[in-house]
């Protein structure tokens, strides 16, 4: 092989190696769309040192809203931030926290894949999950809108699932507000398919507004997303403890 060809092959091999190692690295934190992200593992939380509280054997289905072609809500200014990435980062953090508490989890999506709402419900059933928690972030035409709200589905007959969903929504909202200091928009009735069609207690968390510049700045900070995630985790734990009594 001529020297020029050897150099060409060597250069290609190096480029491919670099590309491969980059694309295989998971994007743990949220970054503007289309921007490669340096990946660092989250720092160990103090909670890891605590003795896990005894909790009922439960599987929590964690649903990162949207994904793939469905970007969800988006920031109003450039660079564009998309909800789907915040959702995935948050559920991964919640999963980490719950595992440290010996609570089993099932991620509906663990990458940038699009699943229909019905598929998400089916996956919850396949996982034999006991609770369903969907994580979203918000956007509104008014840039002033901000704060956190948690939805549950009320079919009008106040059945057990509705009551349990409401209790879970309240527990999670209380903890997330305490953890973040964000404005509470309350627990609300929402007619969303994933919380309506699931047979187990189900909630949908809206963790803040990408359309509010002040709140977006917070959401871009992984330390703030950890607070949101920690609040969701504590809320789930509070709820489970009431079931253990
Ligand atoms: Zn959403």
Could you describe the 3D structure shown?
This protein has 245 residues and is α/β, with parallel strands linked by helices. The protein has a single domain (3-244), classed as Zn-dependent exopeptidases (Aminopeptidase), CATH 3.40.630.40. The protein is 43% helix and 15% strand. It has a six-stranded mixed beta sheet with strand order 2-1-3-6-4-5. The longest helix is centred in the last third of the chain and has 23 residues, at 222-244. The chain starts with a helix and ends with a helix. Bound molecules: zinc ion. The site of zinc ion has 6 residues, from loops.
Q: What features would you highlight for this structure?
A:
single chain; 245 residues; Aminopeptidase; 15% strand; binds zinc ion
Topology record:
Blueprint: H1 3-24, E1 59-64, H2 83-100, E2 104-107, H3 117-126, E3 131-138, E4 148-152, H4 160-180, E5 184-189, H5 193-197, E6 202-209, H6 213-219, H7 222-244
Parallel strand pairs: 1-2, 1-3, 3-6, 4-5
Antiparallel strand pairs: 4-6
Helix pairs in contact: 2-7, 4-7
Bound molecules: zinc ion.
